């Protein structure tokens, strides 16, 4: 565990609880023969979880925090997140196998190329909207900057906040839409549902197209747990006071 | 004058009326007389719930898979709300937690026993989506333990949505008519002369495990006639095909392989997927080794109700051009060039597999479209998986492949068309 000197005690406990959950369920975390075992996942997410070339919708998994991936698998199984293909595949899967799969993809090198979605062109106006919202947010509408939680480089924060760079634009638009309409849920408090509701459809398009073109060029993974403090309560993640 | 004519008319109708009454009376008797409709109101004797009894109750609930049907995805376990689609509309399972208003909180043991054995409760005559015809076999010890254990669950005040059924099925009393035509209570003494292991197996298959709910061939109006006993068929709710369960269908397994399959979901002859994967995951993985063995012994003794199927590849026919190449390219790496499987059965053989020998091609089409992962169980903690091909192949290619494997490895005629594949697009909700 990374030292977390600056965090209040309840926050440290929350991080520990999440890691503990993962550790407890990943006694079998070793995944021998992973590529062949997980052939079903590769079909859409790529053999190393790096995404499939030309895939217009599927997110990459490589290098995302294990805690985040683990929770998403549970969410598909338990109905908090809706995707028929995913639920079909993981409907009869236990926590231990999910934890092993999450740990496997978290250890893969993060993707270093942008999404190849052929999404619409990024106009200068869209670029400006996106950069402003991503880096500064919109205090008037109570929208925090994406970087406050997903990190300066937008590569996520251990143990449960995912990278945003290089995700297909259509995928981001669909996820934010699902949060707005209540189809996608995270562990409460569901901070992303609040954020998504405060964004306009135009904002969402601009952000999604802009993000799909960003990369973690140096292959950086998520920031270590506790290296900064997100401003909002999201699931069990430690957080500071809402600004 | 007028009244005389009426009297004559009545007199003439009398034989007809008598006939109707006699037939009605007989039909009522066949389904158990009036007894099923008298829901007991007495409080019954209190149950002395020690830990042994509760552990037994938990086992009964697991093998009866009460949670599987009485939990909606994402909902509280045992609180109900799972939808069951029937040709007459949607029925929602009920809340079994001890909440006084929404669940079974103020039910007595006699009322519970009555609902389980006869399918009638204070709420009226229950629909046969609830497998009461099977649960009629449950013995007193199992019912008591089950009831005592259900009362230890945390109470949930969740209320399932009201049923959405067409006229007249929405009226519960119409179930009396249905029962007169289609419900014949199980004979608890069937096979009394058989060895104890066989009888235990029959109890688990026909009673608690209600395997016939999926593996029985349905007759008119969703009924389960004796002629279709474990004869296999399309499951109305989810649209998957469940194979027959008998000595012929299960000849590929020896009894201990079959017992292992039930608990682990995997065997050298195939692994569980779709509804069977769920049943193994939620229920059968908890079978004790003895009970699994009893089920296997019983199933292998069931006489087949279907004619023996043709040998592999017997149906004379030429494959669609390119089907063999598609198989070689996309499938042979896992399932073997000759359908023999790989990795000690982790990649199942296709020779004689359920999906290729079934008269109904739906399982083959769905598996190719959406892939699968066998259930996680202690016997198979990290199952191998099959990728979905819904995006890599078009409907004509999927049809060609389904026909190719069914003809070559299962001896079935090539029935699948691209239109059928398109019609099967869309993953069943459960």
Secondary-structure topology with pairs:
The complex is a heterodimer of chains A (243) and B (430).
Chain A: H1 9-25, H2 34-37, H3 39-45, H4 66-78, H5 84-90, H6 95-106, H7 124-135, H8 147-150, H9 169-180, H10 191-198, H11 201-212
Helix pairs in contact in A: 1-6, 4-5, 4-6, 7-11, 9-10, 9-11
Chain B: H1 2-30, H2 51-63, H3 66-69, E1 83-86, E2 89-92, H4 109-118, E3 120-121, E4 124-125, H5 132-135, H6 140-150, E5 164-165, H7 174-182, H8 196-208, H9 212-215, E6 233-234, E7 241-242, H10 255-264, E8 266-267, E9 270-271, H11 274-282, H12 289-301, H13 323-330, H14 332-335, H15 354-357, H16 362-370, E10 372-373, E11 385-386, H17 395-410, H18 418-423
Antiparallel strand pairs in B: 1-2, 2-5, 3-4, 6-7, 8-9, 10-11
Helix pairs in contact in B: 1-7, 2-6, 4-6, 8-12, 10-12, 13-17, 16-17
Structural class of chain A: mainly alpha
Extended strand count of chain B: 11
User: In the residues of chain A, how many domains can be counted?
Assistant: 2
| Distance between the first and last residues' Cα of chain A | 28 Å
* CATH class placement of the largest domain in chain A: Mainly Alpha
Helix and strand pattern of chain A: HHHHHHHHHHH
Mean pLDDT of chain B: 93
N-end to C-end Cα span of chain B: 66 Å
Task: Write up this protein.
The complex is a heterodimer of chains A (243) and B (430). Chain A folds into two domains: 9-106, Cytochrome Bc1 Complex, Chain D, domain 2, CATH 1.10.760.10; 124-219, Cytochrome c-like domain (Cytochrome Bc1 Complex, Chain D, domain 2, Orthogonal Bundle), CATH 1.10.760.10. In chain A, 44% of the residues lie in helices and 0% in strands. Chain A has eleven helices and no strands. Chain A has helices spanning 9-25, 34-37, 39-45, 66-78, 84-90, 95-106, 124-135, 147-150, 169-180, 191-198, 201-212. Chain A is globular and about 50 Å long. Chain B is mainly alpha-helical and 430 residues long. Chain B folds into four domains: 1-30; 35-182, no CATH class; 196-299, Cytochrome Bc1 Complex, Chain D, domain 2; 314-425, Cytochrome Bc1 Complex, Chain D, domain 2 (Orthogonal Bundle). Chain B contains 18 helices and eleven strands. The chains are: A mainly alpha (243), B mainly alpha (430). Chain A binds chain B through residues 28, 31, 36-44, 78-80, 84-85, 87-94, 96-97, 100, and chain B through 72-75, 277-278, 280-282, 334, 343, 370-376, 381-392, 426-427, 429-430.
